[in-house]
Amino acid sequence: MSQQRRRLLVGGAAALGLATPLARAAAALATPPQGKGPFYPLELPLDQDNNLVQVAGRSGTAQGTIIDVFGRLRDEHGRPLAGVAIEIWQVNAFGRYHHPHDDQDKPWDPGFQGFGRTRTDAEGAYRFRTVRPVAYPGRAPHIHFALSDSRFATFYTQMYLAGAPENERDFLLRSVRDRKARESLIVNLEPSPPAEGAQGSKLAGRFDIVLGETVLSRKP
Q1: How far apart (Å, rounded) are the C-alpha atoms in residues 92 and 114?
Q2: Which domains does the chain carry?
């Protein structure tokens, strides 16, 4: 499958609910930071696009439930932050990272990219296709996010799944004391729109990210 076909386009995001007026986010809380964690790739894969369920040069798709994660990146005044690099990484459908230090006795999935990268468009929108993360010892299901740009120091956070029973015991999620701020990290997954479902996506979730002045004032 060609790289052009594999790459997901943000332009179709209106069907996934990205056409929300900017004013709605003007009063939003800043997204809480979360730790980078120990499993950021030591060596980035050759395939680094925003479609983690298909690896260039390999047939088939990743195992697990395919999901779309999308949203907008804005400042606390609701202004879009364009051209920001967003990276994600997570466990595969069996609960194992594509990382040499993850020595769990769980399978690798050669069809899963494990890491993805994209840039926000002019409206701050981004989109990834990946698999639904699962829990592993000590952690609730989550996806790591890293946002980097020449305007500010790299910002790390994590996205969690609504309804996961492990959320109540996850030490990083519970470390966010403010209830509303903590809830901003938790995303509902709903059935994908028909057009996305026809391409294999089963669920979709919106994760908007708001960077406050404290983050934006930290220079790289």
Answers
A1: 7
A2: 3-216 (2.60.130.10)
